[in-house]
Design a protein that fits this description.
118 residues; 7-stranded mixed sheet; 4-stranded antiparallel sheet; elongated
């Protein structure tokens, strides 16, 4: 599985961005997908996730502002980010999990920079 993240950029506080994560390779084996972020000097943190069945979950810090979705036909996951805050500034990574023989395997995209100015 290969993941390609895109859509990051510079935006003012209160603005919006939509990130995309295009999956290729053994996409039929992907179960859960999600977004993580890492700010300078901080550990990578989970932001949002979606299951193969379409369930979604969010970190408290982004709940009500971010929305994660998957388009099966395009093999792409999205993260719609609204009401952005300077503290949302980070490199955003997409993540996917496959299960083979009851063993989970983790895959990461290359990251896309999101910068929110005050």
């Amino acid at each position: 599985v290969q993941l390609q993240a895109s859509g990051g950029g510079l935006v003012q506080a209160g603005g919006s961005l939509r990130l995309s994560c295009a999956a290729s390779g053994s996409i039929f084996s992907i179960n859960d997908m999600g977004w993580y972020r890492q700010a300078p000097g901080k550990q990578r943190e989970w932001v949002a996730g979606t299951t193969r069945g379409g369930s979604t979950a969010y970190a408290d810090l982004v709940k009500g502002r971010f929305a994660v979705s998957r388009d099966g036909a395009k093999n792409t996951m999205y993260l719609q980010m609204n009401s952005l805050k300077p503290e949302d500034t980070a490199v955003y990574y997409c993540h996917a999990v496959t299960i083979k023989g009851y063993q989970p395997y983790n895959y990461w995209g290359q990251g896309t920079q999101v910068t929110v100015s005050s």
